[in-house]
Amino acid sequence: MDGKLAMLQQVPLFAGLGRNELGLVSRLCDEVELPAGRELMREGATGNEFFLLLEGSVRVERDGAVLATLGPGDYLGEIALIDHGPRTATATCETACRLLVLGHREFHSLLDANAEIRTRILETLAARVRRLEPDSAH
User: What is the DSSP letter of 1?
Assistant: First the structure.
């Protein structure tokens, strides 16, 4: 499995997908290079993309406080692929970065065209909900 597929497989949302399915996801991703200082997302703005960091570092802040610094293999925005909701933090490239970017529209087109991938993604999400809320998930 090539490096990008291996990195995608580490994202919990995609953990239940096989090599061929990950390949379909990978083909929908754009590889982009961004300079230091470029904002990837702003807290409160509508989420449209998922980002997987291939090279560089990204600072994540909420209400002006630094929450984390992300590096290669880290990801952000995967829930925006599902709900298209508001961002919970601001993320800014600290250094020049190379990223895989997957858009909400492209992801949903894949789910519409491939019921097996949609089912695996839903099963993965259900398992996460069960782990997070064991008393309320029946």
Answer: -
